[in-house]
Amino acid sequence: MKRAFFLTLAIYLLFGGLWYLIPWPKVQEPKTTKISLSSLRLLPPPCQCNPCTCAKHSLKAKEPPPPVQPFQPPPPSSKQLAQEQPKKEVLKRAKAKVRSQKPTKKATAKRKRREQKRKRARSQLKKRVKRSISRSIPKAIAPPSNPKTAEAKPLQKAHLPPPPSRHSSPKPSPPSPPTPPKPAPSYSKHFRATYASAIRAAIMRHRFYPRLARRSRKEGEVLVAFTLTPTGHLQDLRILRSSGHKLLDRAALQAIQRASKEFPRPQEPVSITVPIEYRLH
What we know:
The chain is mostly helical. It has helices at 2-21, 78-84, 87-100, 105-136, 147-152, 187-206, 211-215, 246-259, and strands at 220-228, 234-241, 270-278.
């Protein structure tokens, strides 16, 4: 313990001697100036009168400032004048240039192709609407299968019985069976036949093609069935035949729900089936 004490003491003494021997820079103290009271002078209070009218102040009258000349902008250049022209005149000139130029062969060919495509699309749409309406509306009277054969067949002569003799007594004819009354057409069939076109037109107005289905080139036909109530609500809305794509089936159901506000209201609940096609032209 004694050795350790003496060793630490020696180390501390060494460090203290080194610290004392190193010439450290001295810190300069700020200089202080002494002011005597005899050097101080009291200044008179400031004059509160106007400096121009006061007799103590011998100031010359201030000269009026020179008149300020108004700013005159430089004359506009030709480019600025062209930019300031009204837009209508520029548009008129551009249209006149376009009209003066003759249409090229490529432009005329492109226009013809566009017109042909539009005509084809309209004809295809009309055919599809006709097919869908013919499927939805039941056929009341079936036309003859072969009208030519029916017209070509000649009328056969009826074999009349021999005339009765004078002596023979006439035989009484058997009574004809009563004809059964014709069944009255049901209200649901009459409603479908009269309002099928209106229902179909309302659905076509609210039909939309989903973007994902259009990008992935999905097509198909959805057969939807529902019952229309007298209040205008839909009941038992279901898909009888799917298109094979969930996006198209969902879009068909949404189109019928939106178009139900425009459907005619029946007196009794009527079941209706409607096909909805999704085709890319």
